[in-house]
Design a protein that fits this description.
Layout: H1 27-30, H2 32-35, H3 51-60, H4 66-78, H5 80-108, H6 112-121, H7 125-156, H8 160-169, H9 172-176, H10 179-207, H11 210-215, H12 230-240, H13 246-254, H14 265-275, H15 279-306, H16 310-321, H17 325-360, H18 368-382, H19 389-417, H20 436-453, H21 459-463, H22 465-483, E1 509-511, E2 518-520, E3 524-527, E4 532-535, H23 536-541, E5 551-552, E6 556-557, E7 567-568
Antiparallel strand pairs: 1-2, 1-7, 3-4, 5-6
C-alpha cells in the first residue's frame, strides 16, 4: 500500500519511558478515495489522470453564473465603458498572478494552503489564509445557491427559502465522494452547459442584432453615463477582483496533475495554463456576456430581475423556444450551479480541514467539514446576501488580493532572488510558525486597503483600495524577505526531501513511524522524537513534541541528523 492512510484523529501522548504510541485515523480520514489527500502532498501514485483530464475537470468548475450577476452589476452601476475597463483590468491582474501559483501547485502536488505555507507565510501564518479561502468558498456557494434558488422559483414556484435548502443538500453526496465523483459530474454535465451557454447569444445575434451596438453606449442604471470614469473603473475593478481567490479552487484540481516529462511537457504546460489562470479568460467573457443579456432583458423584466441570471436567460430564449424557454433556462442554470457548487463545497472542506488540524491537532476527516461550510453558506443565503453583492465582494477583494499578490511575489521575485527556498517546503518540521515576508505583507496590505475601502483616505483611495492592496503586497513581500535575509523561511535545512533530492528518489516510499503507513519522500520529515521518519499529517497533529526538531530554547534553530529510513520503490 502506498500513500494510503489506514490510520482516529486523536492525538497520542508520549509515555514517560518511550516514544509516543501509534496513531490510527478515523475511518473517513483514512479513506483517501474520499479524503483526496486533503492535508498533504498529492503523491505521484495518486495522480493517475492525464493533463487534459485534470484541466477539463478544473475548467468544469467555472460553469458558475455568478460571473453573469457580477458583470451585470458592474455595468449597471458604472456604465459600459467603465465596466468593460474594470472587467478587463481585473482579468489581467488575476491572470498574471495566477500563472506562478498554478505552475507551483501542479509541479509540487500541493493545494493553495500548502503552497502558501512555503511561499512566505509559515506554518501558522497560513492558517489565516485558510480562513480567507474558506470564506471565499462559502460566500460564492451562497451566491451561486441564490441564483439556483431563483431559477427553481421561476420554474416551479418553489419559495426561495426552500430553494436555498435544496441547493445546499443536493451537492453533499457528490462532494462526499471526492475528486473521482467531481470529475464524473463535470464531464457528464459539460455538453448541457455548453449548449445552454452559447444558445442565448445565438438567439440574440439573429433576433436582435442591434442590441450589441446599443449595449456599447449603455450608461448604466445609476446615472453613471456611458463615458469613462476613474472612480467607476476603480470600484468596478474591486468587485471583479473578488474572484481572484478562484485560483485556489483551480489549484485543488491542479495538484493532481501528473509529473511533467519530456513526452508530455507541451500538453502539461498548456493544461496548467488553461486550468490555472486561463479560467479568467472565460470568466471575463461571461461577465460581459451576462451584462449583455441583462441589458437586453432590462426593459422587459426590470432592474432587479435583470440582475438575476435566470430572467435574462428566459427572455433571450423566448424568440426561438417560446414557452419552452423557461424550463430550458432553468435546466441550464441548475446544471451550472451544481457544477460550481460541488467545487465550492469541496474546496471549502479542504480549507476548513487545514485550519482546524493546526488549531486542534485533530483530523476527523475532510468530509465532516463539508457540513460546516454548507451551514455557513445556507445562513448567508437566508440573510439575502445577493442584495448586497457589490459591497460584500468589494470588501472581500481587499483581503483576497493581498493574499494572492503576496504569494505570487514570493514565487516570482523572492525565489529568483534567493531569499526564499527554490522549492515549496510545506511540512511543519521545517517551517517557522510565522514568516513575516508573506504574512506581514498580507496583513499590512489588507489592513491599509480596508481602511481606504471605508473612505478614510478619500474618494479615490476608496475606489482604488484593491490596487493599494496589490501594490503593497507585491512591494512589501520581497522587501521584508530582503530585510530579514530570508531567515524565516526554513527553521532548519531539509536534507531529506529538499531541493537536492534526485528525481528518481521522489516516488520512493518511507514508512511513517507514527501511523505505520508508507508515503512518498516529499511527504515525510526526519523526527528526532520518533527517531525516524514521520509523515506530514502525523507531524501536524502531534501536540506533545514541543517542536524540538526546529528549535532549541538555548541555541536557536538546529539541524537534526537524518535517521536511517527504510525505502521501497513505489
Amino acid at each position: 500500500m502506498t500513500d494510503t492512510a489506514t490510520p482516529s484523529s486523536a492525538t497520542t501522548t508520549a509515555p514517560p519511558d518511550g516514544p509516543p504510541s501509534k496513531r490510527s485515523y478515523a475511518k473517513l480520514a483514512a479513506d483517501e478515495s474520499r479524503e483526496d489527500y486533503s492535508l498533504r502532498y498529492a503523491p505521484h501514485s495518486f495522480r493517475r489522470w492525464s493533463p487534459t483530464m485534470v484541466a477539463s475537470t478544473a475548467l468544469g468548475g467555472i460553469a458558475y453564473l455568478a460571473d453573469f450577476a457580477i458583470g451585470a452589476s458592474i455595468v449597471f452601476t458604472y456604465g459600459f465603458t467603465s465596466g468593460l475597463a474594470s472587467i478587463l483590468c481585473a482579468a489581467t491582474i488575476i491572470f498574471v498572478t495566477g500563472i506562478p501559483i498554478a505552475r507551483a501547485c501542479a509541479k509540487y502536488g500541493v493545494d493553495m494552503d500548502l503552497l502558501t505555507r512555503g511561499a512566505g507565510f509559515g506554518y501558522f501564518g497560513s492558517t489565516l489564509t485558510s480562513l480567507i479561502y474558506a470564506s471565499f468558498t462559502f460566500i460564492f456557494f451562497a451566491l451561486e445557491g441564490s441564483i439556483m434558488a431563483q431559477a427553481m422559483h421561476q420554474a416551479v414556484g418553489l419559495p426561495v427559502q426552500f430553494g436555498y435548502l435544496i441547493t445546499t443538500l443536493i451537492v453533499i453526496p457528490i462532494v462526499f465522494r471526492g475528486m473521482g465523483a467531481l470529475a464524473k459530474v463535470q464531464a457528464w454535465t459539460q455538453p448541457i452547459w455548453l449548449i445552454g451557454m452559447v444558445l442565448p447569444f445565438l438567439v440574440l445575434a439573429f433576433h436582435s442584432p442591434d442590441t450589441f451596438s446599443a449595449f456599447s453606449s449603455f450608461g448604466g442604471t445609476e446615472g453613471a453615463g456611458s463615458g469613462f470614469s476613474w472612480i467607476g473603473f476603480g470600484l468596478g475593478t474591486g468587485v471583479a477582483l473578488s474572484l481572484i481567490a478562484q485560483i485556489g479552487e483551480q489549484a485543488d484540481y491542479l495538484r493532481f496533475m501528473p509529473a511533467k516529462t519530456e513526452a508530455n511537457k507541451r500538453k502539461w504546460n498548456l493544461a496548467v495554463l488553461a486550468a490555472g489562470p486561463g479560467w479568467v479568460i472565460i470568466g471575463a467573457a461571461k461577465q460581459l456576456g451576462g451584462a449583455l443579456l441583462a441589458f437586453a432583458a432590462l426593459e422587459a423584466v426590470g432592474k432587479t430581475h435583470a440582475l438575476e441570471p435566470i430572467a435574462p436567460q428566459i427572455e433571450a430564449l423566448k424568440p426561438w423556444l417560446g414557452s419552452f424557454g423557461l424550463p430550458a433556462a432553468a435546466i441550464f442554470v441548475i446544471v451550472s450551479q451544481i457544477k460550481i457548487n460541488v467545487t465550492n463545497a469541496y474546496s471549502g472542506s479542504l480549507s476548513w480541514s487545514n485550519f482546524f488540524s493546526r488549531i486542534t491537532h485533530k483530523h476527523p476527516g475532510r468530509v465532516w467539514y463539508i457540513f460546516l461550510n454548507l451551514a455557513i453558506a445556507l445562513t448567508l443565503m437566508e440573510m439575502n446576501m445577493f442584495a448586497a453583492l457589490n459591497k460584500l465582494l468589494g470588501f472581500y477583494s481587499n483581503v483576497g488580493i493581498a493574499w494572492i499578490a503576496a504569494v505570487a511575489a514570493d514565487l516570482v521575485i523572492n525565489k529568483r532572488a534567493g531569499w526564499s527556498p527554490k522549492y515549496i517546503e510545506f511540512k511543519r518540521a521545517y517551517l517557522y510558525a510565522v514568516n513575516p515576508a508573506g504574512f506581514g505583507a498580507m496583513v499590512i496590505a489588507s489592513t491599509v486597503s480596508i481602511i481606504a475601502f471605508f473612505g478614510v483616505f478619500g474618494e479615490y483611495a476608496e475606489a482604488f483600495s484593491t490596487f493599494i492592496a496589490a501594490g503593497l503586497a507585491v512591494t512589501l513581500c520581497p522587501l521584508i524577505a530582503w530585510a530579514t535575509k530570508g531567515k524565516y523561511y526554513l527553521a532548519r535545512p531539509n536534507t531529506v526531501s529538499g531541493p537536492d533530492v534526485e528525481v528518481e528518489d521522489i516516488t520512493a516510499t518511507h514508512t511513517c513511524a507514527v501511523c505505520d503507513t508508507e508515503y512518498e519522500l516529499p511527504d515525510v520529515a526526519d523526527c528526532p522524537v520518533q527517531s525516524g521518519p514521520i509523515c506530514s499529517l502525523c507531524c501536524s497533529l502531534d501536540a506533545t513534541c514541543g517542536d524540538v526538531c526546529r528549535t532549541d530554547t538555548s541555541a536557536g534553530p538546529v539541524l537534526m541528523p537524518m535517521p536511517t529510513m527504510p525505502v521501497r520503490s513505489a
